Amino acid sequence: GDDVSGFVRVTVQNQGYGSAANFQVSLASDGCLTFAANQTVVGPLTNGQSTTVDFPISVSWADPSDCACDFTATVDATNAICECNGSNNTLTTTYNNPLPNLRITSVVPTFNCTSDGSLTGNVAVTVNNNGCADANSVVVQLSSSGSYTFTNQTVNLAQGATQVLNFSLTPTAANCDVNFTATIDPGDLFCESASGDNASTYSNYTPDIPDLAVDSDTLAVSCTSDGNVRVQGNLVVENLGCNSFTTDIPVRFTVLDNTGCAGNTVSTWTQTLGSVNINGSGTQSFAIDQSFATNLVTNSTGCQVSIRVELDHTSSICEFDGTNN
To answer: What residues have CB less than 8 Å from 162, skipping those under 6 apart?
Structure first.
């Protein structure tokens, strides 16, 4: 597991001729660790006798890259004992930290939409060992709050080394507002200098990709005058993708002389829907009004026609799915 644990043992010896009792021993470091308050040796400690005092360690190494730490022990820290020689009451020893420290320094998801339905994505995970020893065959895990799943990767990290691991994904409209969490050494197999930096999360990632579809319409065909026809009503567009969509939408309308979008073309025109602002999973209504000249008696099937609506007929908008336009 992580966090440094155990104790630092200080040996105290009475090199004088008298007996000493009820004196304090302190232990300090140059910043790598912090120890509890002074400890009291009850004694008595007579001439030539030694005793040990253990100072527990139960915290993280303050700076995992500090590989040499000085421990300074002081006996009779409060000067309660009158001694023959007080100049040898302090001893400093350097301890070399033998542990790595594995951490996730960044999690960066990206996506690319080259054409409708052709999407790629990647999560770049940067790992680092800022400890004092090499670590080999370290497992790196990536998970998501959505339906994305990833295969664990392994990495060798020398002391001070940094490496970027790439986890590929295919963005889908079902995965909006996703959290990605990367964890190094998820099984806690390596003993490290510090804890709390083995995982990092990129929160609320939403690929800015729309998925436009016709939700409904009230388009109707009417005769405005002899030989003139008018198509009028509202077209409701839905955004099945993620995030708000605010780009103008090119649309092609086709009137056909039979029902079910079958038959011959009576009239076709294009129109650009402006002032677009459709939230993810939201809709927006647009007014349609178009007139053209035709003879509906001859250009219909029992006076019945149909209207085909094609959103983004120019394929200028890259979407999760272009087959539902």
So the answer is: 105, 126, 127, 128, 129
Q: Quick one: three-class SS letters along the chain?
A: CCCCCEEEEEEEECCCCCCECCEEEEEEECCCCCCCCCEEECCCECCCCEEEEEEEECCCCCCCCCCEEEEEEEECCCCCCCCCCCCCCEEEEEEECCCCCEEEEEEEEEEEEEECCEEEEEEEEEEEECCCCCEEEEEEEEEECCCCCCCCEEEEECCCCEEEEEEEECCCCCCCCEEEEEEECCCCCCCCCCCCCCEEEEEEECCCCCCEEEEEECCEEEEEECCEEEEEEEEEEEECCCCCECCCEEEEEEEECCCCCCCCEEEEEEEEECCCCECCCCEEEEEEEEEEECCCCCCCECCECEEEEEECCCCCCCCCCCCCC
- The pTM (predicted TM-score) of the whole model is 0.82
pLDDT tens readout for residues 2-30:
666 789 999 999 999 999 999 999 999 99
pLDDT tens profile 242-258: 889 999 999 999 999 99
Residue 158: is its pLDDT beyond 70? yes
Pair type for strands 153-157 and 135-144: antiparallel
